Each structure stands twice: as C-alpha cells, then as structure tokens.
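Lab meeting, action items carried over

1. Structure of the two-component assembly. Owner: GW. Status: complete.
Input record:
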Amino acid sequence: MSESAPIARLLRGLNRLTGRLAGTAAAPLALALVLALGSQFAEFPLGIQAGVALLAFVWFLRRRREMGALGGWRLWLTGVACALVVRWQYGYWFGQEPGVALVALLVWLKWLEARTERDERTVAVLTLFLLTAVFLRGQTPLHALVAFSGAGLVLLACARLTVSPILPAPLALADRDAGRAMLWALPLALLLFVLVPRVPGPLWGLPADARAGRTGMSETLEAGSIASLARSDEIAFVIEVLEGELPAARYWRGPVLEVYDGRSWKPSPWRMPNPALDATQRPAQVRYRSLQEPSDLPWIFTLERTHALSGAVEVERTSTGSWRARRPLLQRTLFTGEARSAEPLPETLTPTAIRALTFLPPQANPRTREAGEAIAREHLQPEARLEAIADFFRKRQLRYTLTPPPMERDSADQVLFDTRAGFCEHFADAFAVMARAAGIPARIVLGYLGGERNPANGTWVIRQADAHSWVEVWLARRGWVRVDPTTFAQPERAERPLGEVLGEREGLPLLLRPEWRWAWRLRAQLEAWEYGWNVWVAGFDAERQRRLWQNLGWRPDRALGWALAATGIALTLAALLAWWLQRPPTSRDPLERQWHRFCRLMARRGLARAPSEGPLDYGQRVMRRFPQASGEIEALFRPYLQARYGGDPTADAAAAAMRQALRQLRRRLRQEKSV
Amino acid sequence: MSLRAVSIWRSWLERWQRRRAPAPDGTLTVTHRTLYILPTAAGVGFALALAVLWVLSINYLLSLGHALVFWLAAVAVVAIPSTAATLRGVTIEVSEPEAVFAGEHVRWPVTLRAHTARLRPLALSAPDAHAFAVLTPTAGSVRVFLEQEAGQRGLHRLGRLTVATRHPFGWFRAWTVLWPTVTAWVYPRPEPEAPPWSVAAATTDGARAHARRLRSGEEDFDELRPWRMGEPLQRIVWKIVARGGPRMLARRESPASGSVLLRWSDTLSAGETESRLSRLCAWVLAAHRQGLAFGVELPGIIVPPNRGESHLHAVLRRLALFPSETS
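Predicted assembly:
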C-alpha cells in the first residue's frame, strides 16, 4: 500500500492537471502530438519552438477549462502570423523543414477552432503527418517507437471520436476494440511491408534542405584533413560480403583528386570520357553489399576495381573509376557492388591528359621537385623512376603519426626534408608531387583503408578513423597503379588497423586501443543489430525488396510484379473477409466458450455431441468412454451445469474452473496417447 | 433525367434489399446477407491522408514511413470486419407500439440484443423519426424508442428502419435495413372542446340526464393528476392535451349508469369527414370516461353499446379505418 501511495498521488496530480480532459478523445491525440513534436522539438528553430509551445499551452488551458472553440479573425490572424514566423525562421516557403514547422503550428490552430468530430479528425490526420515526419530526423528503433506509439494513440483517438448519440458505449470499450484491431493488423502490415512493390524514390527529388549529413570525408585534400577524421569512430559504411572474399589490402576508393594548386588537391572539374570497362568480361571476384552512412558528398566508397554498382539511387562511374550518385547521399543508402581482383586493361592517356596530370605549380615545394627531377634525369623508364622514388621515401625513415608538427607551406618539402613525420595525407601529397616532378602522371585517391570484421554478423565495419589517402600513378603499360606511400613509413598499415600500427596512444578513440577489447565486443554486437535494422527495416527499399523476392525464388519483371502482388494481397484479404463473414457468430459468454471447447475436443476424438443431447447426458457418455479421465470430465461439465441451470451467479468462477479442468483433461489424454 | 435515374436506382436497390431482409414479424438477426458496409467520409479522408503519407515515404526514401503507412492501412482493413462484427449477430425486434391519436407521436419500441456480452454503439433511424430514449433491461440488450409523428388516422407502419454503426474507428459504416410488418393504430384526433352529444343519443334515463348536465357545461370529474406511462390512455383528459397541455389523468366519479349510441348523423355540424370522426372520437372517449355503455352508428355499421377497454379500442379502430372522403 505504502509503495503505491506516491503513484496514486502522482495520478491524482495528473488528474487535477488534465481535469476532465483525460476521458476524452483529446487526451490520446494530445499525447500523440507531444510525442511527435517532442521528439523533433530540438530540431526546430527558436521561433518555431516558441510558437509551438505557446499554442499548445493556450490549447491546453482552453480545453482544461472546457472553453468553447475559437474562431473568427483572431484565428486567421494567428495563422498568418505562424506562416510569417516560418518564413522568417527558414528564409523560404517551400521545403521539408518549413513544411513540417508549419504543420506543427497549424495543427494547434486547427484544434483551437475544432467544433465537430470532423475537425478533430483533421487534427488526427495532421498528427499522423507529424509522426511520419519523425522519420525524416532518423530511422532508428527509437524513432520507430515514437512514431508507432504515437500513431497508435491517434487511432485510439479516432475510436473515441466514434460515438453514437443514441447508444453511447463506455470509452473502455472503444479503446479495447481499437487496440484489438491494431494488434490484428500487425501480420497484415508485415505482409504489406514485404510484398507491396516499392516505388523507387525520390519522385520529385529531395529538396535541397533534406537532412544534411555529418562529419566525413571532404572532397579536397589539405594537410591535416584526414588526421582529424582518424579521431572519430563513427561508422562510415558497412560492407557485407555476399560472394567471394575481400582482398587482404582493402582499399575503398572515393573521390580522385587530380588538380593540385600547391596547397591542396581537388577533383578535376572537367568531365572526361569514361574509359571503357574491362572488355574481357571476367567474372566478378567479389560481390558485396555496402551500407553507406549519410554524408554531404555524392561519393560512394567502393572496393577497388568495382565494375558494377546498383542501389536505391542512381549512380554513375566517373572517368577516374570512382562511383558517385547524382546528389549528395544525405540518407543512409544501400548498394550492391561487384569487383574483380584481376588487373584491368591498361588505360591510355592523351598527351593533354598527361600534361595535366604531371602539372605542378612552379613555386611550390622546390626541394621535392628538384629531387623528383633528379630521379627523372637518372632513370628513363617510368617503372625505374617509381622504384627510385619509393627508395627515396624509404631512406627518409619517415615517422607515421597522427599529430605531425604543423606545416604551413610547401608541405611536401616539410614532410620529406624538415619534420620527416606525417600522416597518410602528408605522405600521399609528397609522393604525388615527387612523381609528377619525375614526369609520372599521378593523382591522389581519398578513401578508407581496412575496416574491422564484426564477429557478431561477419560484416566489415569501416569507420571514419579508417579514412586514408593514397596515390595512383599511370604507367603506359599497366595503366593506373596504386601506390600507398604510407607503407614506406609504416609497412603494416595496409593490412592492419590504425590502432595496432600506431605506436602512440594519444588522440586515438578508446575503442581502437587494444586493451579495450571487451567494450569493443559489446559495441560489435550492438552494431550488428543496428546493421540488421538498417538493412532489413529502415533500409528496406525497392532494391532490397527485389532481392528478397529473388531469394524466395520469385523473379518477376516489374509490371508483372506489381500486378501479381496487388492481386495476391487483394485475394488474400477477400478470402479472409469471406471466411470471417461466413463464420457463425461465436459466443463471447465465457461459460459457453469453455463448453464449446470441450465439445470440440471430444468431437475430434470421435465423440461429437448430438444436437439433442443435454450437457448431463453428454458428459456422462464421455465419462463412460474415457473412464480413466472421468474426474476431469466431471470437473468440467458439473460447473457448467451448476452455473447454467443451477442459478449459480458466479459464472466467471465456473468458467475458470472449466478452463482448469480442460487443461488437465488435455494433459491426461495426451499421456494416455503416449503410453 | 438524372433524377429519374436516381429514383429508378433507389427503387431497384430497395427491392433488392427487401428481398434480402425477410422480416415478417419485425424481428431480424443481422447476418452477412443483410449487412451492408461502405466507407464514410472520414474513412475516405483517412485513405487520402495515407496516400499522401505513402508518397512522402516514397519521395524521402523512408522505409519506416512505409511501415507506418502499411500498418495504418492494415488497421483500416481490419476495421472492415471489425465494424461489420459490431452489427453482425445483433437481433433487432420491433414491437407493437401503443395506439395514439392522430397528431400525437407513435413510439416504436425497438429492442436490440447482442450475441456478445456487450452491445456496441449503434444508431437507429427511420423516416421522419428520431430515436429518443434508452432503457437497458439487461447488459446485452437495449430498448430504443423511435418517435414518429402520427399524421393521419389509420394503420401505420414504421417504414424503412436502418440500424447502423461506425464503431470502432468511424471509417466505415455498417448498416442493415428492415421493413417491420408491425403496425401501429392511429385513432382519429379527438375534437377539442367537442359539444356534448345530443340528448336523443342517450338510450337510457341516466345517460340522458348526464347528457343534459354536460350540455349545460358542467365538468364531471373532480380531480386531475399527471398521467404516467402505462396507464390507460382513455382516462387522459384530452381537452387539456388538445389545448397543448400535458397529459392529465382524471379521477372519475362513480360510473354513471346508462348507455348512449353515438351517431354519425349527429355529427353533421362538424363539417367534413375527418372533423366528424374527430367529434365521434371525442364523444366515444367522453362516454367511456364517464363509464357509460356506448355504441356507435356509422354509415352501414352499428356497433352496439357496451363497456370496457376492449370495446373502446374496437370502436376507435372502426373510426380509424373509416374510409376517408378521397378514397
């Protein structure tokens, strides 16, 4: 008793707060709105937050005091003010963010003027819109919990709104029937989720303000741009190998930087003709699925020599062999790629392209250029020059560190001749400069290296900390060849994670440190669940659906798939409905139900009750047939007789006794069978 | 033209529904054959909202948005049998209403019984009628009164009775229609302030004396109290009702002895047929109230004087069924 006192006090307080509101349709609807708006409140600008809070407060006060609906010019004026606030806060009208904000404000206004059931239903629909908008903020299980429980509350409100003036039913009945319908809908919803053909979106294009990505790779390379990423253990993408095996050195290519201005590297602004794909059509060596986390860039990080890639968004292969989408990948996106492990056919370069790819600004990095030019004078063959540059790097004994001394200008010179320490981007920069000085076309590739195998589900998790940059040089006979200058300083880096090769501890995420393995395992399990959720629930798109159907052995082309799925669902529903309607109405009298269960059980054993047979006669006949279970049978039909004909008012107790006896009877009959 | 098409469609629909709803004794248990269901405006609105949310989910690549929309759609689909189940198995019984006088309201008692433990929200409607009262004899059943204005004397039927429900979500409306064969008697409207019958109508001395007393304007009851439901209709003081007052009950003097024969020919001063019937009705009621044995003489029919409730109703039914001028 004493424990429940605070709860009772709390409930009493809550009742005082809400007044008579608690027992109305408004209560679940208001709660749903609180869920919908509360979960994205922090994302609204201050003006919208203030507006929503104010309108909600006014609504609450008016409802609590059971004041009538508002109307007239004041309401219109407030509506216009709301629109202006939205315009002022966002700077534009049309878009996802202002749209959601406007609905978040107008839903309260609509409610303030609600008079009829129809008005309240409009509020319910607007609330559903706001609940769906929750998913624009993210699609984690938490978001799902918020949106689905909110939608359940909206449905409850719909049920409470449906009252009959002639025959009012208690709200509890409406709640119960609505709740039951919601539960029954679950299997059908699952069926629809899997079977209804997905339309590949977007339809009219994501607005420019659709949710922006987070930290991640940038499109240019400057000193220190990757070292800052190495401190983040956020996931960049997750790879699931579907066929084949990943190579030991797992280089995930992103943007390729070809333009150097003496300070930074940038992708080439020109679109060059796409080189022909490998004409030999050798089979794919690796087929993999890649789940890319949102980012601000359109680049998709793919395994080297990926020749095919498909996903929910349109992708194209650039002339540098990278893959990019039409738009920045602002959403978590699933791709399926195929890669070959064999060397591709040598790619030819025009003299113009060679000139562009060996260009160096005249003033920058004089010492590196000089060294490169010296090597070019010494060796004639590009292969020999490359070897000489590699030798040069090895002899420098460069130190691999996350925290190199700051460098202002001529970073290649500083890395090679002054500090002799750096991170991958410094080495890549220096190597590319020197290769270009030696007359070899060179470019820098941004991407990720390695990744960790998650023991929980076998996926490869690539984090921002795995960000890497390396160099590709062009040799006339071999085409573009990867050179990772970091391996000259730290030969193990290519095949081992950063935490193991980096001698120093400072600046590394905790979980990358070897002594934190237990926490690492725990995280691996959580990330495995997250991956499953992201792929199977949050990332279940047209592509994913098609693959699921194929795995189930069904390969429809698109139009046929639509028709089949629609017909199948319609037929299933119609059949269920027909079955349900033909069914005789079942009694909901608990006593009757138990009695029928008993009759059915006996009928299955060939002892059906004759229509003319009373409970007593039937019970005695069954007892004669199963003498060993006579105790149970008697315990079953006696309470029934007593309650039905003996005028025993406690029918519920009798039903409970019958249920108990039925359970024992079943057990007894089963034992009999097994003996 | 389109109006004509609508009326043809209506009549065809009604014939079709009548074939499906045989209810000779006014009792109907709703089965799948007699149950109709269509989405309501709210349901169509909800479907449109779902369509919009679906398009949004497609455009913003929201897989969970799809899941939410599909769940809501599945709930809507489940709502179809759920709404039907609210009505299915419900037994509708229309009982015979108490006889009333023209211009009053017939109250049709409708008993709704659920096959389940609880009766869920139902709505009743019939032409020109409104449901007004609910009594709950037991948990699983309910009695509703449909009040319908009794315009003309005669034998009346309720007409098309609709029992509908939108439970549980209001997106669908399930309904059933029946044409109960139960009839209601509507007696002619008693003439307010009717002049007493002629002394000649009285066939005995006592009755003659009584008629004289009436013609001189003396009231012959001494106490009034409000009428309660279930009490005999004929003891109501119709004069008061006709003036727009409540139904009052008169405590009568001891029954007068004697008998009267109330004649159609005596009502000539009342005017046309309906008025004459009204006067006869008022006389009949007055005679019954005063405890006189009374009979009526109508063209072609003579009901011999008698006393008692059943006699009164027999006479009033004669009056109710008296052929009107137009027919």
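2. GW to write a short summary for the group page. Key points so far: The mean pLDDT of chain B is 81. Chain B touches chain A through 61 residues (CB under 8 Å).
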